[in-house]
Amino acid sequence: MRVLAFLDGTLAAPDAPQIRVDDLGLLRGDGVFETVLVTGGKPRELGPHLDRLARSAAMLDLPPIEIAAWERLCDQVIGEWSGSPEFVLKLVCTRGIEGDPSATPTAFALANEVDPKVLRARAEGVSVITLDRGIDPGLAERAPWLLLGAKTMSYSFNMAAIREAKRRGADDVIFTAADGSIFEGPTSTVVLVRGRTLYTPPSDIGILPGTTQAALFRSAEKAGWTVKYEPLRIEDLYEAEGLFMASSVRKLTRIHTVDDRALPDSKAVYGELMAAYEGEY
Amino acid sequence: MRVLAFLDGTLAAPDAPQIRVDDLGLLRGDGVFETVLVTGGKPRELGPHLDRLARSAAMLDLPPIEIAAWERLCDQVIGEWSGSPEFVLKLVCTRGIEGDPSATPTAFALANEVDPKVLRARAEGVSVITLDRGIDPGLAERAPWLLLGAKTMSYSFNMAAIREAKRRGADDVIFTAADGSIFEGPTSTVVLVRGRTLYTPPSDIGILPGTTQAALFRSAEKAGWTVKYEPLRIEDLYEAEGLFMASSVRKLTRIHTVDDRALPDSKAVYGELMAAYEGEY
C-alpha cells in the first residue's frame, strides 16, 4: 500500500514516473525532506517536522514552506491511506526544474508501509560503529554554505556510512569529529543515559535537531528524568548505562554494541523511556 | 532542443515525467553523474569521463559501469541531436528504486543546449571568493565513506556555495581547507599559472580529478609548458600570474578577481592555453 500526492492536491500513482530528469532534486540532491511516523491516523510531531522542513528550506534559499498547505497535504494522504495503522509519511520539496527561472518547487508527500527491518531493529536493538564525519564542532556556524544541520536530499554519504557499518558487521553508525566529539547517526539522533539523566549533543555543532529526541525529552522530563544538551565524547558512549538512536520511524532504538564493545543491558531503561514516549500519543 | 535516452536505448520525452518519486537518486542524492561537452558531433574526453563515472560508481558500491553500453548511449543521443553544434551531454546513474533488493540503476543521458551564462563566463572571465570546505587534506583517505572525490548527485552544498558567492557579488567559489589549502571549485578544477608552469592540487586530497584540467595539461605539455600536481595555498591564488577554472562545458575560464583582489590580466596566457587545448579536438 502506498499513497502519493503533490502539494497542489493532485493524487498520483507512486509506481509510475512522476519526476522530470531535469528536476534539481534529482540532478543535484537540491531539496529538503522530512520523514513522519503516522500511528492510528495521526502524524506524530507534525508541527516540529514542518518547522524543521521550513528551517531546512530557508537554509537552502528555497521558497518559504507554507505550513498550512503541507498540513492539508498530510491530511489528504493520511485520509487516502488504507494500509497498516502504523505507516511512514515522507515529505519532499525540491528546487524544481533546472534552468527555469520561474521554477516552482517539486513538492509531494508519499505514504508507505514501515520497513520490516525497522520493526526488527526496534525489537532487538542494534550494533553501531563510530565513523569520522570529518568536520569540527565549530564548522556549522563558520560555514553555513555547507548546509550542516539542514535535512537535504544530498544524503549519499550517509548511505555510504551505513554500508561501511554493514561491511564491518554492524547495523548503523554514530558520526564523530576528529577530536572525539559525538555528532549524530546518519539518520538518527544519539541519546545517552547516565543515572536519571538523558543527554544529547547540542544541535548548534552542526547536527539535525531531532524531532523524536525532543519528544522523548519532553515526555521523559514529565516522568521525572533530567534532560541535558551537552557535548558528548566517544568515551561517554563506551561507558553509557544506556545508549539509543532516536528517529521518527524507529522511535527509540536500543544500541547494544558500540565499536564491538557490548554495553550493559538497557532493556529496563528502554521500557521506561518508551512508556513515557508512547504516553504522548 | 533536448534529447533524452535511457541506458537500454529507450528514447523518452525530456519534458515529461520519467523518474519515480522513490528513486534513490531523488530521495537520497544517491547516484553519480558526468557532464560531457560535445563539439562537432564528438564528445570531448569521453573515455576519461566514463572512467570517472565508473570510479565514482565503485566508490558508492553501485553496480559496475559498463563502458561500452554508455558509449552506445552517447552515440545514440548525439545521433538524435539536431540543435547547436556545441552542446552538453549529461550522464546520470542512480541506485534505482528504494527498498527493491533487485533494483537496477536508473541510467540515462540527457543532451541540452549550453547555458548562455556559460558562454558569457568563457568570454568575460569570472570573479571568485574562497570559502571554507570544512575538511582537511587527509580526510579523503581517512574516511572513504564521506565520498570525497566521487562525483555524486549530492551536490546541494556546492549549489549553496555558489549562491553564497552571488550574495557577496562574485560569480563562483574556490573551496579551501581550514589550513589554507586549495581544494577545487564547486563544479570545476583550479588551474594556476606561474611562469611557464601550470599547477593544480593533487586529487588525493579529496577532490575530483578534472577531465578538462587533464586534457589541458596534456595539450599544454605538448606546447612546451611544465605541469605540476602540487598543493596550493590561498596566498598562491592572490599572487597568481594566471588563474583558471577548468570544467567540461566552461572549458578554461579566466578568473580575474579572487576575494575582491584583481589579478593581473591573463588574456594572453588564456589565449595561448586555449589554442593548445582546442588543438586537441
Describe the structure.
2 copies of one chain form a homodimer. With 281 residues, chain A is α+β, with helices and mostly antiparallel strands. Chain A has 2 domains: 2-114, Aminotransferase class 4, branched-chain amino acid transferase, N-terminal domain (D-amino Acid Aminotransferase, Chain A, domain 1, 2-Layer Sandwich); 119-278, D-amino Acid Aminotransferase, Chain A, domain 2, CATH 3.20.10.10. Helices cover 31% and strands 27% of the residues of chain A. The first copy, chain A, has helices at 24-28, 46-59, 67-80, 116-124, 139-142, 156-167, 211-222, 234-238, 267-278, and strands at 2-6, 11-12, 31-39, 42-43, 86-94, 106-113, 126-132, 172-176, 189-194, 197-200, 226-229, 242-247, 251-258, 261-262. In chain A, strands 7, 8, 9, 10, 11, 12, 13 and 14 form an 8-stranded mixed sheet that branches. In chain A, helix 7 crosses helix 9 (267-278). The radius of gyration of chain A is 19 Å and the shape is globular. The two termini of chain A are 24 Å apart. The mean pLDDT of chain A is 97. The interface between A and B is large, with 59 and 59 residues.
